[in-house]
Known about the structure:
Layout lengths: L2 E4 L2 E4 L35 H6 L21 E11 L3 H13 L8 H4 L3 H4 L4 E5 L22 H9 L3 E3 L9 H15 L2 E3 L5 H4 L3 E4 L4 E8 L18 H13 L4 E7 L15 H12 L5 E5 L6 E4 L2 E4 L4 E3 L11 E11 L5 E14 L4 E4 L12 H15 L10 E2 L7
Amino acid sequence: MRAVLVAGLLFAGGPLAGCGLVAQGPAPGEAAGGTGATQSEHPGMPSATAAASGAAPTPAPSAIPGKGPRCPVLRCASVVVTGGMLVHHGIWEEAQEEAAAAGKPGLDFLPVLEAQRRYLERSDLAICHQGTPVAKPDGPFSGAPSFNAPPHIVNAAKDVGYQACTTAGDHILDRATDGLLRTVDALDAAGLKHTGSYRTATESQQILILQTPAAKVAVIEATFGLNGNTPEYPWQVDTLDPSAMIAKAEKARSLGADVVIGAMYAGNGYGGDVHAGIPGALQTKAARALADSGQFNLVYGHSQSVLPLENYKGTWIAYGLGNGITEVSPQHPAMNEGLLVRAQFGRDANGSWTVTDLAWTPTVMVGNPYRWCPVAADAPQGPCAGTAADDATRQRTIGVVNSMGAAASGAHELLITLEP
C-alpha cells in the first residue's frame, strides 16, 4: 500500500478526504520498514533477517519527548480531548455581534474558545467533538432540540488549535443526510480531520490515524443514539457497539497505530444521574468492554455533565467530559461545566505505549459575554463566573472526577501556568 504524508498525517493513496487511513509509514526518527515483519522485537537490536542478509542494523528510536509534561521515557505524545460544542441561539447571536464589532464578516466564535489555546498548544494533538450538524454559512440556524449550527464554529475550532473532531453524536442527523454532509465537508474545508459520520460506505470503513511527532494515534468513536432520527444508510454514523469498535481498534493496530483512543457519546441517565455526576450502566458497561479488549490506551465519553475518571484494570476511562460550549443554565449549574483531559502516552523499552500522565482541568461556560473558561486552581484566565461560583464549580468537579479513585491512581489537576 502506498502512503503519502500530508499535513502531518499519513493517508493511504486514494481519493478520500477527511477520514485518513494511515498506512505503514515510519514514525519520525525511525527507519523505513520499522513496523514490518523483519523488525526485531527488541528496539535497537538488529532483526534476524537483517543479520542473515548482512543488511545494516535498524537504528534505535530517537528521543522525542513531545509537548506537555516531562516525558519519563524515550518517546511521548500528549492528546487533549474536550466536551461537545453545542451552539445555541444566544451564542451565535453574540458571535454575530462580535464579528461586526471587529469589522469581520459572518460570525466570530474565536473569542468563545480563545481560553483553550494555551492548553491545546501544550499538546501534540487536540480533538474536539462536533456532534451537531452545521448549516449553510447564511443559515438558517437553530439550536435545541434540532440543531443546525453556524459552520463558523468549525473554523474557530481549527484556529484555536484543534487538529481533529469526532462527529458521532445524538444530534448529527438532526438535519438528515444533508446536514451530515455539510458538517464533514465543513471540517474538510477547515482542515480538521474527523471520524464518526461518513459520506460513503467506503469512507465508513477507514480508520482515522493521526501522526504526532512520536506516535501514530488512532481515534475510534460511536454514539448511543441519534435523537430519534434514522440514518438514510446504516453506515452513515457509527453507533455504539463495543464489538464493532474493538474490531476497528484491531484494524488500527494492523495499520501501524501506536495508540488507540476510544470515544463514545453515551449521554447521561441510563441508570446514572445527570446532575450528580454518576455514570449510567450503558456508559460503564461499554467503556469497560473497550478497556477489557486490551486494544485501547484511553477511553472517554461525551455527556451533558462531568463524570468520573477511573483507572480500570490499568486503562484510563473518562466517563464524561460534560459540555464544552453550551447555553448557560442557571437552574442546572452542572450542565454549564466541562472537563478538559490531557493524556500523555509514553513508549517503554519494549515498544509498548501506556498513559504516563493523566491531567484534567475543570471548566465552566459563562455568559455576557459567552466564554469557555478554566476554573483550575491556577485560574489562568482570572475569575470566570466570580470567585465563589468558580470555587463551587471546581470543588464539585473535583468530587465527581475523583469519585471512582482517579486521584489515588495518579490523575491530577492540570495547572497550565506552572508548566514551562
